[in-house]
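Leucine-rich repeat-containing N-terminal plant-type domain-containing protein
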Amino acid sequence: MRNPIILCCFLWLCIIFIEVSGQCLEEQRSLLIQLKKELSVDYSTKSKLESWSLTTDCCSWDGVACKHQTGHVIRLDLSSSSINGEFNSSSSLFSLRYLQQLNLANNSFYPSPLPMGLQQLLSLTHLNVSGSSFVGQVPLEISFLTRLVSLDLSNHFGYPMMLESPDLKGLIRNLTDLRELYLDGIQISLTGSEWSKVLSLALPNLSVLSMSGCNLSGPIHPSLSQLKFLTHLNLARNNLISIVPDFLANFSYLISLQLCSCNLYGRFPENIFLIPTLRILEICTNPQLTGSLPKFPPGTTLEVIRLSNMDFSGKLPDSISNIAFLRNLQIDDCSFIGSITSSFQNLTELVYLDLSWNNFSGLIPSLASSKKITGLILSNNGFTGTIPSSYGNDLKNLEILNLRNNLLQGMIPSSLFTIPSIKLIALSGNRFSGQLQEFQNASSSFLREIDLSQNELQGPIPNSIFKIRSLNHLSLSSNHFNGTIGVGMFDDFKHLAGLDLSDNNLSFNVSGSNSKTLPYISRLRLGSCNIFEFPNFLRNQIHLFHLDLSNNRIGGALPNWGSRGWMLVAKQIEPLEI
Ligand SMILES: *[C@@H]1O[C@H](CO)[C@@H](O)[C@H](O)[C@H]1NC(C)=O
Ligand SMILES: *[C@@H]1O[C@H](CO)[C@@H](O)[C@H](O)[C@H]1NC(C)=O
Ligand SMILES: *[C@@H]1O[C@H](CO)[C@@H](O)[C@H](O)[C@H]1NC(C)=O
Ligand SMILES: *[C@@H]1O[C@H](CO)[C@@H](O)[C@H](O)[C@H]1NC(C)=O
Ligand SMILES: *[C@@H]1O[C@H](CO)[C@@H](O)[C@H](O)[C@H]1NC(C)=O
Ligand SMILES: *[C@@H]1O[C@H](CO)[C@@H](O)[C@H](O)[C@H]1NC(C)=O
Ligand SMILES: *[C@@H]1O[C@H](CO)[C@@H](O)[C@H](O)[C@H]1NC(C)=O
Ligand SMILES: *[C@@H]1O[C@H](CO)[C@@H](O)[C@H](O)[C@H]1NC(C)=O
Ligand SMILES: *[C@@H]1O[C@H](CO)[C@@H](O)[C@H](O)[C@H]1NC(C)=O
Ligand SMILES: *[C@@H]1O[C@H](CO)[C@@H](O)[C@H](O)[C@H]1NC(C)=O
Ligand SMILES: *[C@@H]1O[C@H](CO)[C@@H](O)[C@H](O)[C@H]1NC(C)=O
Ligand SMILES: *[C@@H]1O[C@H](CO)[C@@H](O)[C@H](O)[C@H]1NC(C)=O
């Protein structure tokens, strides 16, 4: 029974292959070769144009697809091809009349405007110039491409592009086949809710509308409710000054809704969470928007919930366990309360969890079955109890662990320091106590930052810590660590920029330092470290800007270090506490 299936699959692949390859027409080939000559390409990085050579069928070149019956080039994808420089307005590109799909995304055509020549490509159904650094007004000529189904002019980080004349209305009036419209980052000069009326009138069947950072104003107008086939709606980073209308919950095809930083207020309609198709919900940074989480029914399809920095409150519902594919839950900087229910145990797909800056209490979740998690941020709450053993033992993909400023206690398991991909361990401002145990394999870790300050840790600092060569920041201040630290123990720390050992019961022995000691240190705090002489290695520091040597026993005058005098060094250090 297996053979027919394999044959089918094989035939299907064959059909696809024949459809997009085929004999290259000489006339089409020479246009492409001419185009390659016109374009300024940085061949030191990867470019699709590398494969364009006369010895091969042009229909097989990277980014080129032909119609097999005719050999006409119908698809050209030159995205991410390291093309730079101005676009020749009489380019041979515009003679490729049969093109249906053109993608020039992610190149740099600065400072060219979008070329008017595009109007000659009347067969275009898909045009993508996102992130390609065109500048200025979008030309009226784009509106002549009446077969367009998908238009992506988005300009996320580029130079200013605008829609003034023609305005949005002029651009889309005749593009009645459009289903996907991406205008992110383009300055759209329409007053009030005009943009919404224009869109719903001209493009009632739109499926994707992405207009983040377009300088749109508001409020969100009822006319938007006519775009009921929307699957993706992104209006983030516009000053809409609006409530969130109830009708959004009636968009029964909606897959993603992005409304971060829109100056929204009022109460967020809970029913939006319950749209059966919704997978991505991002409404962060609308500090005046209130709301709470609903009871999630079984089969909820949400994968991403971002509600950071809003006025959401209440408890996390037990029914959160029904969001079986939840990957990303960011509800930091809200006013949530209560404890984290054991229902978190069922969130096996979780990759990123940020509950920081709320008023959660009770035990922190063990997340033993969330083995994919990379970021776990529970800081600034009222969590109590100890660190679950699952963190060091089961969460093998963890990169960021931030439990700062809670009421956690008990020992810090040394297994945390050997999580294979861990980069940041921040446990400061809790009540952790006892001694830190030695651990292995520290020298091969990715650890960049350890912050254990403001706890009740005691005993010696384990030698294993001094073997973590990758460390940039180490803070152990305000604990009860004791013993003597020699400056030579930092010989392995070639990248350390921040070190804080203040306010322990340590003795820091500075003798024996040399010109290679802590070469990149910029923030050094050694307050109350029983230091007797002025640290000689400071003489060589060129990155230092923050130094604290307060409450030590340094006698005599500050050293005079010749032409690179100490005071010269000190001038650029602030604050300086000795
Ligand atoms: C943009 O192109 C560069 C190569 O020129 C590539 O490294 C990068 O991943 C591309 N970015 C996107 C978002 O496609
Ligand atoms: C543009 O291309 C045409 C034809 O290939 C050429 O004659 C002309 O010099 C080019 N212009 C610029 C500014 O490169
Ligand atoms: C346009 O091309 C970029 C880069 O390849 C891609 O990320 C983006 O999804 C494309 N836009 C559309 C609408 O397909
Ligand atoms: C739109 O199309 C109509 C006729 O199909 C034409 O008269 C008009 O000039 C076009 N408008 C624009 C802005 O292209
Ligand atoms: C929208 O789609 C419907 C069919 O689904 C079609 O009858 C109607 O003409 C379309 N409207 C526009 C403006 O394309
Ligand atoms: C944004 O729109 C306002 C009017 O709503 C206008 O005054 C301002 O210049 C626009 N900003 C940009 C960058 O176009
Ligand atoms: C949502 O759709 C239902 C049923 O079609 C309708 O009764 C209700 O008025 C709609 N709500 C809004 C806010 O448009
Ligand atoms: C977790 O999932 C299992 C089976 O998938 C189910 O039996 C159990 O009730 C769920 N637990 C919670 C707390 O939702
Ligand atoms: C957080 O909890 C504390 C103590 O339970 C309470 O005083 C404070 O008002 C709460 N804050 C918020 C934002 O609910
Ligand atoms: C240390 O690394 C070795 C080899 O890479 C490995 O066999 C051993 O299990 C590791 N030990 C710990 C405690 O991770
Ligand atoms: C350090 O502290 C531990 C436990 O608090 C104690 O047992 C030990 O004697 C102390 N060592 C020194 C050198 O003070
Ligand atoms: C420092 O250690 C001494 C002796 O071990 C002890 O008496 C003292 O309480 C410790 N001080 C602090 C702040 O832990």
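thats it. The mean pLDDT is 90. The longest helix spans residues 2-20. bye
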